[in-house]
Write a structure and sequence with these properties.
Layout: H1 8-17, E1 26-31, H2 32-46, E2 56-61, E3 66-74, E4 78-82, E5 90-107, E6 112-121, E7 128-134, E8 140-143, E9 146-150, E10 155-159, H3 165-181, H4 184-187, E11 188-193, E12 204-213, E13 228-236, E14 263-267, H5 269-288, E15 299-304, E16 307-312, E17 317-320, E18 324-327, E19 330-340, E20 353-360, E21 363-370, E22 374-381, E23 384-392, E24 395-396, E25 399-406, E26 409-414, H6 430-459, E27 462-463, H7 465-468, E28 478-484, E29 489-495, H8 497-500, E30 504-505, E31 508-512, E32 516-518, E33 520-521, E34 528-535, E35 543-544, E36 549-551, E37 562-571, E38 574-583, E39 587-590, E40 593-596, E41 606-609, E42 616-619, E43 624-627, E44 633-636, E45 645-654, E46 657-666, E47 671-672, E48 674-681, E49 686-690, E50 701-708, E51 712-717, E52 720-724, E53 733-742, E54 745-754
Helix pairs in contact: 5-6
Protein name: Ig-like domain-containing protein
Length: 764
């Protein structure tokens, strides 16, 4: 395997040695980084209102915990190819949570548990689900001419709902199980659609994908660390599935060169000849109808050296009778003109003539030659027979088909040499002879052109988009630069310059209503900007000026918390897309609410501000915050506070935006209070709170109270009570306290209840 990049000219000697498709009908090599960029651009270009996964409302058991998702909603999956080896290529799948609530519980069952944390999910600070798929397991499938990704195929799933890797894995696996339980229509996403016709040469039927590191890119110190290629191995409809190269194989090269081409397609020599030549030979009968072949034109493939040629399977000929031509006042009446196409018979020897295709010197050569060319013609003038011309001559009407490139299509056009009229004995006058020669040349030219057209139909439309659409949905996914035919057909160029030659930065932005963001871009051409709804509606998309400054609308149409706007920037023939999330509020902080019990530490606070600015934190109790390497902040409670419990109202700020989150600090706690969901009546907003284990003696005194959040309590005894939640709480939670005082000693228990209380409902 080469350790340096190689240009097309440097790769050609290797391609001349033998076919390099490993038995597949075609292969495709694409620059990995540019492929990932185009996939992101196409994701934004196609993003629409329907591109969300069905909301999830389920509960899963974590590490001693229950994690509950309520109306948890993901947007459409993003995919990207990961740098890997030929042996274990992977594709990354990312889904962004855009709405819902996350609840973390501890307890003995789903019905009886203590709530410890509430997260509010939104599109700019939500959780992210990630999974990978091994490309060797063929996670991208062809289905009804669509290339689809199925979320059910994910491996190593994670949901970054907590800072604990074990819980991320458990919840990720839970999400994956939810996907597996959904219908295919909910989990299968179209990445691209194939648009070939039934008579097209390129009709992919199955594929395998690998990734390959660029030469030297595996070394972290190399300048191209991380560079690589995406390799797609393709079997056409009714074609062959081959083997795959392995890491370190001496039979494989790195097929791309950043300085010359970011895409390379290889169409197998055998597939090309058999499909094109074979299709043309079989169609000769259809072209000539009743005056055509006596026997079937069936292609015969045999190997010459390391490549193939295609000829006729059995003896066959093409005959025309009884046709009259008028030329220079003379009627030339043909009795018979026959062209033998006899190629290879059962005795494995060449017969009287040949019709054969092979590749030579970047040319697809049709060899049509033989020993016999029979003709006979009657020359008449004013109805009287003036002479007879008949002859038998060898012939050679071999024709090269040369390649041309137009858009995404490689065309092969025949170069027809002038017709040579054989010299035969005759008794015609010079005028009659010239009339015959003109008629003869015209007749042979017609036959040659009709024969060539049988092959031109397939050769004129080798559309490479039908291959590159396996990954990209663009109409013109590749800009072709050239083609060579050392044996296999080698086509090279660049990945969609219309989507890669300039880019907006960043490609995804979040802005608050009334806020703004100014895009930057690569390249020297100043783009023009337009806006489109990607997910939303209304009269106000916001505005964007000539310098790329976007200003969001002042309000959103109720009840939307956010809308999505697509920015379309054009510079010449190139286009770049960006996806704007316009949110009703400008900052997010999670956990929204959490309880910190004696001896425990608070879970890290994570804030996200529109525009990506840094979030500052301020505690109502004087707590301190320490930034960590991952951008989160540890919370250190105040050294002391009045009472046994204190609700710290924390303000997260960025610029003129702020939001609240809460930490419930508890100094001592004897009782574990559980919410009894089975005993609650959520329709009446009545919540049952209980102690799951009895205590041997009754207390001298107890009391239930609402510490925060409003509402009222009805208690029949000290072991259970009913909380009546308000229709609209003043806080996103309520905190209930049980105080027991026995002989002057006070003991406490606490219950956290979410607002609105409908979040407590378990899925059916």
């Amino acid at each position: 395997m080469s350790t340096t990049y190689q240009t097309i000219d440097q790769l050609l000697p290797w391609f001349r040695e033998r076919s390099r498709t490993f038995g597949w009908d075609a292969i495709m090599a694409l620059d990995r980084d540019q492929s990932n960029h185009v996939l992101t651009q196409e994701y934004i270009k196609r993003f629409g209102t329907g591109d969300y996964v069905q909301p999830i409302s389920q509960v899963t058991e974590g590490t001693g915990n229950f994690q509950q998702l309520v109306g948890y909603r993901f947007d459409k999956p993003r995919v990207s190819f990961e740098a890997a080896s030929l042996d274990d290529g992977r594709i990354n799948v990312t889904l962004r949570a855009v709405g819902g609530t996350y609840l973390l519980w501890t307890g003995v069952s789903l019905n009886t548990a203590a709530l410890t944390r509430i997260d509010k999910i939104d599109p700019f600070a939500g959780h992210t689900y990630t999974a990978t798929s091994e490309l060797k397991d063929n996670p991208l499938q062809l289905h009804d001419r669509q290339v689809v990704l199925d979320l059910k195929d994910g491996q190593d799933p994670k949901l970054d709902s907590t800072e604990f890797p074990a819980e991320q894995t458990v919840t990720g696996q839970f999400i994956l199980e939810q996907f597996k339980a959904m219908s295919d229509s909910q989990t299968r996403f179209e990445l691209s659609r194939l648009r070939y016709n039934d008579n097209d040469l390129i009709q992919p039927e199955s594929l395998r994908i690998r990734t390959q590191a660029a030469p030297g890119a595996k070394l972290a110190t190399s300048t191209n660390s991380g560079d690589g290629a995406v390799l797609v191995f393709v079997a056409m409809k009714g074609g062959s599935v081959g083997t795959l190269p392995t890491e370190g194989s001496s039979d494989w090269r790195y097929l791309l060169d950043p300085a010359s081409h970011s895409a390379l397609l290889v169409i197998a020599n055998k597939f090309l000849l058999n499909s094109i030549a074979g299709q043309g030979m079989r169609s000769l009968q259809r072209i000539n109808g009743a005056n055509g072949t006596r026997d079937a034109f069936e292609p015969h493939v045999d190997k010459v050296g390391e490549f193939y040629r295609v000829g006729m399977q059995d003896e066959a000929w093409w005959q025309s009778e009884g046709v009259e031509d008028q030329e220079a006042g003379f009627n030339v009446s043909w009795v018979i003109i026959a062209f033998p196409f006899n190629v290879q018979g059962a005795s494995d020897r060449w017969l009287l003539g040949q019709l054969e295709f092979h590749v030579t010197g970047d040319v697809l050569q049709m060899k049509w030659a033989g020993q016999t060319f029979q003709f006979k013609a009657n020359i008449r003038e004013n109805g009287a027979l003036r002479g007879i011309v008949s002859g038998k001559s060898s012939f050679d009407y071999s024709t090269p088909f040369r390649m041309t490139i137009e858009g995404s299509t490689i065309s092969f056009q025949p170069e027809l040499a002038p017709v040579q009229v054989p010299s035969v004995d005759h008794s015609l006058t010079p005028e009659q002879w010239n009339a015959f020669k003109a008629a003869f040349a015209s007749r042979v030219e017609d036959i040659r052109r009709s024969t060539a057209s049988a092959f031109t139909g397939a050769l004129a439309n080798v559309n490479t988009a039908h291959l590159s659409n396996l990954l990209f949905s663009s109409d013109v996914p590749l800009a072709l630069k050239g083609a060579k035919m050392p044996g296999d057909l080698i086509i090279y160029g660049d990945i969609s310059p219309e989507l890669t030659s300039f880019t907006l930065t960043p490609s995804e932005v979040s802005v608050m209503v009334g806020g703004n963001h100014t895009f930057t871009w690569s390249g020297n051409i100043k783009p023009t900007f337009t806006l489109e709804w990607a997910d939303g509606e209304g009269s106000d998309l916001g505005s964007i000026d000539a310098n790329g400054k976007y200003t969001a609308p002042a309000t959103l149409a109720a009840p939307r918390d956010f809308v999505r706007v697509r920015v379309v920037a054009k510079a010449g023939s190139a286009t770049s897309y960006a996806l704007l999330t316009v949110a009703a509020r400008g900052i997010n902080a999670n956990p929204l609410v959490q309880i910190v019990r004696p001896g425990a530490t608070a879970q890290p606070l994570r804030g996200a501000a529109l525009g990506g600015g840094k979030v500052s934190w301020q505690s109502s109790l004087g707590a301190t915050f320490t930034e960590q390497a991952d951008g989160s902040f540890t919370y250190t409670p105040p050294a002391s506070f009045e009472g046994n419990v204190a609700v710290d109202e924390i303000t997260a700020s960025n610029g003129g935006h702020s939001t609240k989150c809460y930490v419930v600090n508890i100094q001592t706690e004897l009782f574990t209070l559980y919410i009894d969901r089975a005993g609650s009546d959520l329709g009446k907003r009545q919540i049952k709170v209980v102690l799951p284990s009895a205590i041997a003696r009754a207390p001298d005194e107890y009391g239930w109270s609402v510490i925060a959040g409003g509402g009222s309590i009805t208690a029949s005894d000290w072991e259970d009570m009913t909380y009546q939640a308000p229709a609209t709480g003043s806080l996103p939670f309520a905190l209930i306290e049980l105080l027991e005082e026995v002989r002057g000693r006070k003991s406490y228990g606490y219950a956290l209840i979410p607002q609105p209380v409908e979040l407590l409902a378990l899925p059916a």
